[in-house]
């Protein structure tokens, strides 16, 4: 989580992380605030976290990206370092229309990070490059 989200969103994600580190209690305590701040993508994002759909992909160089298996069964690549997702909803609702702070996939990444619920996958630099090139081919 960088400085790309409003301070109130950043603070809420920090509170969730702290609560899970200290007590590992459920997310229900935060659901109202999540819905208030992130709107309609909050519940679907929580569903993705519950389904363990978020995978943190790490290469030996330290480069990290996230892959989220969407509810449609499609795999989306998310970059938390620059607050970006490859899904159409991110491109339309976040970038073009500015109707949302983020899509359900990137929120699921942030929640998974805060809750310690990411799957972990270590790949070679070549594999990471293949993942990135595959995304580029799909877009182009």
UniProtKB/TrEMBL annotation:
Matching Pfam families: SWIM
GO cellular component term, pick one: Shu complex
GO molecular function, one term: zinc ion binding
Domain SWIM-type: residue ranges: 76-114
Keywords per UniProt: Metal-binding, Zinc, Zinc-finger
One BP term from GO: double-strand break repair via homologous recombination
Domain of life: Eukaryota
PROSITE patterns: ZF_SWIM
Name of the gene: Zswim7
Protein name: ZSWM7 protein
PANTHER family registered for this protein in UniProt: ZINC FINGER SWIM DOMAIN-CONTAINING PROTEIN 7
Keyword Phosphoprotein: no
């Amino acid at each position: 989580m960088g400085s790309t989200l409003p301070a109130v969103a950043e603070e809420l994600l920090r509170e969730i992380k702290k609560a899970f580190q200290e007590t590992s209690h459920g997310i229900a305590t935060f659901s109202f605030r999540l819905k208030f701040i992130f709107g309609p993508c909050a519940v679907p994002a929580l569903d993705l976290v519950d389904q363990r759909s978020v995978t943190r992909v790490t290469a030996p160089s330290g480069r990290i990206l996230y892959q989220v298996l969407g509810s449609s069964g499609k795999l989306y690549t998310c970059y938390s370092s620059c607050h970006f997702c490859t899904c159409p909803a991110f491109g339309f609702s976040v970038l073009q229309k500015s109707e949302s702070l983020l899509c359900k996939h990137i929120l699921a990444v942030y929640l998974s990070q805060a809750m310690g619920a990411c799957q972990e996958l270590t790949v070679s630099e070549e594999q990471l490059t293949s993942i990135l090139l595959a995304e580029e081919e799909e877009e182009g």
